[in-house]
Amino acid sequence: MAIGVYGTVRPSDVSPEDVEIIMIYSPSRDQTETIVQKKLSATTLLKPYFDDVNTQELLGGLYNLTLPAAEFTSIGFYTLYLRPAQIRTKISDCGILSALPNVKGIVINLDEVPDDFRNKFEKAQELVGYRVEYLNNGQKVPNFFRIVTSSFFCEPIVTNETNTSQKTIRYRYVENNTNLVFLTLSPSNSPSNKTNAVPFIGQPGQSIIISNTYFNPTTLEVEIAEHDISTLAVGIFGNQTKSVEDGIYTIYDSENNIYKQYNLFEVRNQFNELLYEVREDRGSDIDISKNFDNIIE
Amino acid sequence: MLYKIKITPESFSQIIKYVDYNGKEVGVYRTVSEVLTGTTNNQPIISSFNIPILLKQNYVDFGYYSEFDGAILQKETVLNFVFSAITEYEYLVLNTSNNLNNFTKDANYVIDWGDGTIENLTTNPIYHTYSTGGVEYYTIVITQTNNFGTNIIKKNVIAPFDTTKVSDNPNGTAEFIPSGGPWKGTPLSYDYIFSGDSGSLEDYVNTTPTQISGYTYSKIKDLASYGTDTYPVGKPIYIDNILLGQIDSMSTEYSAYTIQNISYVDYPNGLTIFNVETSGLTTSTTTLSGITKDEVLLKSVSSPQIFSNVFIERGKVSGYEKVLRLGEVKTIEDLENYGYGFFKLENK
Q1: How far is CA B48 from CA A15, A45, A47, A122, B130, in A?
Q2: Which chain B residues are closer than 8 Å to A14 by Cβ?
Q3: Cβ separation of B293 and A173 shorter than 8 Å?
Q4: How far is A191 from chain B (nearest CA, A)?
Q5: Co-location of A288 and A249 in the same domain
Q6: Taking CB atoms and an 8 Å limit, are B298 and A187 in contact across chains?
Q7: Looking at B56, B77, B102, which one is the last position of a domain?
Q8: Do B71 and B200 have their domain in common?
Q9: What's the start-to-end Cα distance of chain A, in Å?
Q10: Digits of tens for pLDDT over chain A (297 positions)?
């Protein structure tokens, strides 16, 4: 028997508007109390690369994350969490199709959808593949979701039930734009071995989170540090000068740029006995007359 | 996946600032914090820094697509018609409904030609002439009334008849209005599923035909006639009363001919080039049918178990079907008649 081998991972070509970026800052690894959490604008920060030859074509998968310096001002650890954008809305109704009563779904009222995401609902089938997660009393139901298998505009039909005076609302698809969208979900059918076990797809009025599945959530840890191996090498192997007159000790990099400057001095007691030899960082107070070319010429 | 990125002095070109000393430029290191927060001339030293990242998507296409085995196929056997034209304005409608079923054999049919003419469908086929003049669009509606309710099927036509614009939906739209039960009087659409997809077929049509050309073998002998003039120029060649093509021109440099709307040119060196126009996938060449996605093995659906070497997949049950026990179906003909296309027989 032949084995058909295929991959299930592809470079994502998600639009930045479908991405959410959450930044979490911690000044140190052991810091737990002063963690800063902030949402960043993905449409501003995330830019796809385009093919160099076919310039209208996304390179696919590769994105440039432009991090604003104003948000990354401190030494420490910045964790960036990229996840599919969340559309928070409510289920208006759970119903069945009039023409096919065994097709169940949820009905979303466009007026309950945030403006930024309403365009997703205004085109048939645009939401197919989206994930629906449910909230109970403001808490997300863990490990539970449904997948949208179709989305069409719909309208309710009121029908008399036989032998009762009840009215039952069912839905039928319509082509014209309405404010109601019928989403079928998977799984929504009963298992054949227990036909009365209907999978939960939601309740009218329940808050839900609809999110795309266009890419896998990912995290970046951006560590901002003052030193790296090259600056340490400069400190050890770079040119150095000591001005005997004023005690300024200067370290240079391979291009003889001034890397650090120190004041060297001695601390003595009243009997002129040497107590300490001190090296003090001058910080930003750099004496540029101590530049290397000036000294050795 | 976790990206770990370290931003250090070597990440920034602006880590060195240049200051003037007696007319000479002296480079002095900044700290990383100064690069991120400092300013020069009231402008930030840097506004941002870039990190390329890779976003990936895992796709899992659970379930499989199959042609819907319920109402859409049912439509073909309960009520349908095809149409054509005798002349530009005279239309022909052939009722293709299955009149052998118990529930349709006594049904009444009424046709609404869309121009105000409504008549009983007493002959098959039935003819109708639209008023001549400009281009008009009509909707032909056939209503079938049977003991269970009313079936309605609608198809759009254009007069004068134009084969390139027969209909945007060759299957038409179909409705069933039950005469009893909880859905009494409610029009139920047969075309409820994936109608958006059907409508979007227009997106794939190439409105400006493109040329397809290539090399092939000479087919000029298909157009050969008996007699002394073997390849008469401009004479249509028919095979079984169907136009095959004609010789377009003959010269010492090339022979040009057309067979079934494909142009061929034969050159003396034995080279034959064909040329044809295409519009891609068009509504006139494509029959639309709804598909549905069957869920598999995701907590709620289990696949059928097969205990015999013949597997019978039964379609959806409708109110139209007469109830037979499977044991009463003794021959393949019985099976086909009983199932009217519902059964798929497979050797397992």
Answers
A1: 21, 10, 13, 36, 71
A2: 55, 57
A3: no
A4: 4
A5: yes
A6: yes
A7: B56
A8: yes
A9: 82
A10: 456 677 888 999 999 999 999 999 998 888 767 678 899 999 999 999 999 998 888 888 899 999 999 999 999 999 999 999 999 999 988 888 877 777 788 999 888 999 989 888 888 788 888 999 999 989 999 999 998 888 888 887 765 555 455 555 778 887 766 788 999 888 777 665 666 667 888 888 899 999 999 999 999 999 999 999 999 999 999 999 999 999 999 999 999 999 999 999 999 999 999 999 999 999 999 999 999 988 887
- Is A6 inside any structural domain? no
**B94 shares its domain with B188:** yes
**Which residues in chain A are closer than 8 Å to B9, comparing Cβ atoms?**
226-228, 230-231
- Cα separation of B165 and B282, whole Å? 10
Instruction: Identify whether residues A94 and A207 lie together within a single domain.
Output: yes
3-state helix, strand, coil in chain A (%, to 5): 10, 45, 45
Query: Any residues with CB less than 8 A from the CB of B70 and at least 6 apart, and which?
Result: A100, B315, B316, B318
Structural domain containing residue B236? 208-280
B54, B59, B298 member nearest A8 (Cβ) = B59
Chain B residue numbers with beta carbons less than 8 Å from the beta carbon of A258 are 26-29
- Is residue A28 assigned to a domain? yes
Looking at the domain assignment, is residue B287 inside a domain? no
- CA dist., res. B60 & res. A8, Å (int): 7
Residue at which a domain ends, from B189, B205, B221: B205
Minimal Cα–Cα distance from A83 to chain B, Å?
10
- Residue B60: closest CA among chain A residues belongs to which residue? A8
Per the structure block, which two tokens stand in for B168?
A: 């945007």
**Beta strand pairing status for B310-313 and B344-347?**
antiparallel
Between positions 248 and 307 of B, the ones with CB within 8 A of A are: 293, 295, 298-302, 304
* Distance (Å) from the alpha carbon of B138 to chain A's nearest alpha carbon: 20
The HSE-up count of residue A200 (CA atoms within 13 Å, CB side) is 11
Amino acid, single-letter form, for residue B294 = D
CA distance B311 to chain A (A): 17
Assessment of whether the complete model's pTM goes beyond 0.80:
no
Is the Cβ pair B8, A157 closer than 8 Å? no
Q: What are the strands, taking DSSP E only, across B86-172? A: 90-95, 108-112, 118-120, 126-129, 136-146, 149-159
In three state form, how does the secondary structure of B57-99 look? EECCCCCEEEECCCHHHHHHHHCCEEEEECCCCEEEEEECCCC
The verdict on ipTM greater than 0.90 is no
Using an 8 Å Cβ cutoff, are B93 and B126 in contact?
Answer: yes
Number of domains making up chain B: 4
Q: Which residues of A touch B12 (CB under 8 A)?
A: none
Contacts with A99 from chain B: Cβ below 8 Å? 71, 188-190, 192
| Interface probe, candidates B36, B47, B57, chain A, greatest A C-beta count within 10 A | B57
Residues of B in contact with A191 (CB under 8 A): 299-302
Q: Is the preceding peptide bond at B44 cis, omega within 30 degrees of 0?
A: no
Sign for the CA dihedral angle at B196, B199, B205, B208 comes to negative
Q: Provide the domain limits for residue A36.
A: 16-84+219-224
Q: In terms of domains, do A75 and A94 share one?
A: no
Q: Is residue B113 part of a domain?
A: yes
Find how far residue A293's CA is from the centre of its chain. Answer: 49
Residues of A in contact with B184 (CB under 8 A): 160
A209 and A266 both lie in a single domain: no
Number of domains in chain A: 3
